[in-house]
Amino acid sequence: MVTGTGPASARGSSAEHRGRLSDSARVEAFSDGVFAIAITLLVLDLRAPAEHSQESWLNQLLHQWPGYLAYLASFGYIAVIWVNHHQLFTRIAAVDLGLLWRNLGVLLGASVLPFPTAVLSGAFLDGRRPNEVTSIVLYTLVAAFMAFTWLVLFHHLARNDRLLVTGTPAVFFATERRRALLGVLAYLVAAAVAVWQPLASLLIICALPVFYGATSEGWHGVPNRRL
Amino acid sequence: MVTGTGPASARGSSAEHRGRLSDSARVEAFSDGVFAIAITLLVLDLRAPAEHSQESWLNQLLHQWPGYLAYLASFGYIAVIWVNHHQLFTRIAAVDLGLLWRNLGVLLGASVLPFPTAVLSGAFLDGRRPNEVTSIVLYTLVAAFMAFTWLVLFHHLARNDRLLVTGTPAVFFATERRRALLGVLAYLVAAAVAVWQPLASLLIICALPVFYGATSEGWHGVPNRRL
Amino acid sequence: MVTGTGPASARGSSAEHRGRLSDSARVEAFSDGVFAIAITLLVLDLRAPAEHSQESWLNQLLHQWPGYLAYLASFGYIAVIWVNHHQLFTRIAAVDLGLLWRNLGVLLGASVLPFPTAVLSGAFLDGRRPNEVTSIVLYTLVAAFMAFTWLVLFHHLARNDRLLVTGTPAVFFATERRRALLGVLAYLVAAAVAVWQPLASLLIICALPVFYGATSEGWHGVPNRRL
Amino acid sequence: MVTGTGPASARGSSAEHRGRLSDSARVEAFSDGVFAIAITLLVLDLRAPAEHSQESWLNQLLHQWPGYLAYLASFGYIAVIWVNHHQLFTRIAAVDLGLLWRNLGVLLGASVLPFPTAVLSGAFLDGRRPNEVTSIVLYTLVAAFMAFTWLVLFHHLARNDRLLVTGTPAVFFATERRRALLGVLAYLVAAAVAVWQPLASLLIICALPVFYGATSEGWHGVPNRRL
Questions:
Q1: Cβ neighbours around C181 below 10 Å, total
Q2: Which of A34, A142, B88, D46 has the most CB atoms around it within 10 Å of its CB?
């Protein structure tokens, strides 16, 4: 396309610019949709007590406490991922096909999480230890896979700085990659702990999103960049 | 960042401005997604009659009336919350990490609501009074928790007016905090009533969103501010 | 608010303008979310055959044909409603509290539709005629309620032209109100027909969205207005 | 439309422009919502093991492997469709009623996919060969229908270049129509293979989205157009 000079040319280049922004905007909107649905579908793992059961509903509801912990752990994990995703995309200026597929990997991890959450919640209701161990190991493997998809995404961005907003500090991805790698390792440790002590592992699973949330740069970065 | 004068500087400052707006926009979009999904998932608590059952489907459907009441109460509650959320964010200019996490608390309350709704609907179908009491108490505790998350959110905003649009009246948060506190108390009263009379408590639960909707400033505020 | 002259004042008035547009934008985004979720949740009414059943899955799947019809009728109905909603909001310039609550009524109708769809689909699988009649009557009453919420919405807009984009023809709401009223009546007729002949009523239910889609002004209006 | 000169005219033409953009924007937002929900609802097809069952949960989870394959195949298929949809809409400048209904056809295909995925996953758990064949044939027919809806959409756009962004190469739709037709044929071949060898057909179903993803122009096209 040959462009002239003056206002018309300026409009053309602004349209191109918008085109690229719009790419990033639609990836963000689709990702937000998947995160919002996955975080809300978790509630289907909490089950109403069985009708016509002899046991009182109060007992049945109290008995379901590991399900509530699993619900909170998964809600927190997806919430932290959404915060990180938002923070990351304030630094992304353009989307290429490689970033697109790696982002779909992140979405796969988030949208599959209600499944191991339901298994974990069911296993602790069932109450037999081998099943509890199985369910915790499944949960931690899926959670480790989620952290791994972030590692892959950060690695792609660290090698393609043409996709980034000008002025993104080089140290940013080094830090974020380290956090993602730590996540993979922490969930694998939780898997190993589960074999000896499933409840201890469940506590680690609940604590990890809190830790990530507390150390997240998150929205802090935006005011900082204004300095 | 040291910025020069002229067009380049203007673009820089406009980009910063957009950056901050975009923060708020994505928080609103994600919240809208969660509210829209939670309000629509409520329909899964309404169950088709059991096939091959001896009882006529007409009777089974009519017998499910407490489920319809619970559905309407929860639909109304989330609708009111969405209206308030929209109203609030027309007054928010920037999002910090504290606001972000408190907003996620509000979303946790909204997205968990289909669970106590299902329990309440099931308990009145089941028909044994202790289970009805249990289900109403569960519902009111979750609803009180939702009102409490708003109290926490308003408290944060009242102490961080740098996050607000210039010109937001100081009286705004005083009024809103009082409404949130009233919500917490009203649902706790409904919990206490449930122990004596579950049906009366169910009526309170249905009436509260109507009351909040009717007294909501809501979209009224926008034309007012144009005066 | 006393506003000065010059750039600062222009920015202020543009912010007010954006404020109002943003109102309408967020109502549209929330409504789109509810429509998108309701139309997609319908798929949960289609059930995989029972495992370990003696009957072949081919037979079970073929036997479920009324469920497919009900799915298509509800998908078509929500699709038509979304098209109409979009068309309507291209004519709306501002949102007041009355419009907001009436719009939530429209969303209530759309988001509850998966329930009568599931009942209808189950009743024809069950195969006993009284249950089929019950399910069709339930479906048509909900569908008539949906058309009625549109009537209420159009009535409000016809009496509040300050909410409308300048240049909206007066005849627009007269036509649309007539279409909504026709919808209420058509679904009530289908309810009456169901008592004698449920299958004939099911065909009417499938035909109505096709008729509404074919006569919808829809996106046609936009190019027309450019003339 | 006869337009005058000066600021008022400029505002009028910009409003028209926004009107058209907004049409396309809301179609994209609604489609993104449906794709995001359909891709996330797939997780409901993965089932937690039955409580109080004698078989260990580890065995039950491992036994569910065809369900995981079906989940990944459907996730990949909807992801590829979303990428293609995004790519297509960067080339669309206006939306007419014909495009709108054809797009709803595409959404119908995407939102019904969790149903054959659940049937396929259940049939391989059930383990009887005739049911496996039935489920694969159902899946491939739905997937072929999805590819067919794209063929219909591309055909409409190839004949209505007034809807397209200026400068879209004529060869674009020829290529895309060929890809859609190939998709229809490939899924019909997979249906035929299923009768002899269901597992081979399942592998084809898993491979097709990978193939489509790898050959997708996707986001590549955007930088190219800037040359």
A1: 15
A2: A34
Q: Which amino acid is at D200?
A: A
- What's the pLDDT tens digit per position in C169-227? 767 777 788 888 988 999 999 999 999 898 899 889 888 888 887 776 544 434 333 32
Instruction: Give domain status of residue D12, yes or no.
Output: no
| C contact test, residue of B222, B225, B227 with most C CBs within 10 A | B222
Predicted TM-score of the model (pTM): 0.84
Q: What is the pLDDT of residues D154-172, one digit of tens each?
A: 988 888 877 888 777 767 7
Per-residue pLDDT tens for C51-75? 777 888 898 888 888 889 989 999 9
Specify the range with the lowest mean pLDDT, choosing from A75-89, A206-220, B16-30: B16-30
Interface of D with C (CB under 8 A): 1, 16, 19-20, 22-23, 26, 29-30, 33-34, 37-38, 41, 44, 94-97, 99-101, 104, 107-108, 111-115, 118-119, 121-123, 125-126, 130-131, 134-135, 138
Provide the residue type at C203 as one letter. L
CB of A178 within 8 A of CB of A121? no
Asked whether the beta carbons of residue C90 and residue D23 sit closer than 8 angstroms, the reply is yes
The pLDDT assigned to D21 comes to 38
Q: Does a structural domain hold residue C136?
A: yes
Closest residue, chain B, to A224 (C-alpha)? B1
Rg (Cα) of chain B, in Å, rounded? 21
Average pLDDT of the residues in B78-97: 86
Percent of chain B scoring above 90 in pLDDT: 32
ipTM of the complex as predicted:
0.81
Give the 3-state secondary structure of residue C164: strand
Residue B32 has pLDDT above 80, yes or no: yes
d(CA A193, CA A187): 10
Distances C121 to C115, C139, C153, D50 between C-alpha atoms, Å: 10, 10, 30, 26
Counted across chains B and C, CB pairs separated by less than 8 A come out at 102
Binning pLDDT at 50, 70 and 90, where does residue C160 land? confident
Measure C102 CA to nearest chain B CA, in Å: 12
Distance CA B156, CA B173 (A): 10
Q: Alpha carbon B154 to chain centroid distance?
A: 14
**Neighboring chain A residues of D46 at a CB cutoff of 8 Å:** 112, 115
Give dist(CA B117, CA B46) in Å, integer.
Answer: 10
Query: For residues D178 and D188, what is the distance between their CA atoms, to the nearest angstrom?
Result: 15
Distance from the Cα of C46 to chain D's closest Cα (Å) equals 6
Domain count, chain C: 1
Closest CA to A152 of A183, A120, A192, A193: A183
DSSP for D41-106, please give it.
HGGGGS-PPPTT-SS-HHHHHHHTHHHHHHHHHHHHHHHHHHHHHHHHHTTB----HHHHHHHHHH
Q: How many CB atoms lie within 10 A of CB B226?
A: 12
C-alpha span between A111 and D45 (Å, rounded): 12
Q: Domain of D90?
A: 21-44+54-216
User: For residue B16, what is the nearest residue in chain A, using CA coordinates?
Assistant: A226
The verdict on residue B54 lying in a domain is no
Among A2, A112, A124, A138, pick the best mutation site for testing chain D contact (most D Cβ within 10 A).
Answer: A112
Chosen from C11, C20, C27, C37 to mutate, greatest number of chain B CBs within 10 A: C37
Q: Is residue A1 part of a domain?
A: no
Distance (Å, rounded) from C-alpha C42 to C-alpha C76? 11
Helices (H), C42-64: 57-63
Across C36-47, average pLDDT:
91
- For the segment A31-41, the average pLDDT, to the nearest whole number, is 93
Instruction: Check pLDDT > 80 for residue B24.
Output: no
What single-letter DSSP state applies at residue B50?
A: P
